[in-house]
Design brief:
Elements: H1 2-31, H2 34-42, H3 44-58, E1 67-72, H4 75-81, H5 93-96, H6 109-120, E2 125-129, H7 135-140, E3 151-155, H8 158-170, E4 176-179, E5 190-194, H9 204-209, E6 217-221, E7 225-226, E8 231-236, E9 241-248, H10 249-257
Parallel strand pairs: 2-3, 2-5, 3-4, 5-6, 7-9
Antiparallel strand pairs: 1-8, 8-9
Helix pairs in contact: 2-3
């Protein structure tokens, strides 16, 4: 007789939590529905309340988040609008250790591997712009045949580079190095930028022009491209907030082609 009573007690204890989840999910669905957008247009005060609630959530320090807020014309304008409750960008310990150094491949990684293997068959030299602590290096290496001879340099901010160096000391990281400065002493046959250019204040042509010579191949991935005008927003990483660029697709491609490159695949 004791066991059923205990089971009933457990069910009663769990019920408020499950009902709370139902209410939260229902509220989320309602807030994201077209009905709310229509109501906000009719009642400006409701829109102001929702905006204030979102801004308060955006300013909280959480372990991991992917929220966006605001539309700005420059990095500086976005940085001035950022909440003061969080550090700015990736150059801090919390943001530098936010993500694991390795993980499974995404579907979007396979086109990169296809073209990267072709490039590395010519010369096994890579500059990984914004490569974080080595995510692509560690995730790709078991799929690339020439990895034993590779020279893979990651360019990133100091806190990320330091975290990457510490990980490299623990891992088998043959050919991996880090730099916080792109300059004329650095040359690479292939440049990668995988989900990183949107966080860079400087345009890709400017970054490439800092190198000793232009790379033969440029492989880009996970870039937010739009048919509309360029703009900057803010991304909530969780422990930090970053300016985040949205690129006009035609203008971006033209800026790279102006350096003499030809678009091979898109």
């Amino acid at each position: 007789m004791d066991a059923p009573c205990g089971a009933d007690a457990a069910r009663h204890q769990q019920r408020p939590e499950s009902m709370g989840n139902v209410f939260r999910q229902t509220a989320k669905i309602l807030l994201e529905s077209p009905i709310v957008e229509w109501m906000e247009a009719k009642v400006p005060l409701l829109q102001a309340i929702h905006r204030r609630q979102y801004e308060r959530r955006f300013g909280r320090v959480t372990p991991f988040a992917r929220r966006f807020h605001g539309v700005y014309t420059t990095f500086e304008e976005a940085m001035r609008a950022a909440p003061k409750s969080k550090p700015m960008g990736y150059d801090n310990p919390a943001a530098a250790t936010l993500m694991s150094h390795s993980g499974p491949l995404w579907l979007s990684d396979y086109p990169v591997l296809f073209w990267l293997e072709k490039a590395l068959s010519e010369v096994s030299s890579v500059i990984d712009i914004g490569g974080y602590v080595g995510i692509s290096y560690y995730s790709f290496r078991k799929y690339l045949h020439c990895f034993e001879q590779i020279n893979w340099m990651i360019y990133d901010v100091p806190a990320v580079a330091q975290a990457g160096i510490e990980i490299a000391r623990r891992e088998s990281s043959l050919g991996l190095s880090f730099t916080t400065d792109l300059n004329s002493n650095i040359q690479a046959h292939t440049v990668l930028a995988l989900g990183s250019l949107q966080f860079c204040e400087h345009d890709l042509p400017e970054l490439l022009s800092r190198l000793g010579s232009l790379p033969t191949h440029v492989i880009l991935n996970k870039m937010p491209l739009s048919e509309g005008p360029d703009f900057v927003t803010l991304q909530d990483l969780g422990p930090a907030v970053c300016p985040y660029r949205i690129f006009n697709s035609a203008r971006f491609i033209q800026s790279v082609e102006n350096l003499g490159y030809r678009l091979v695949d898109h």
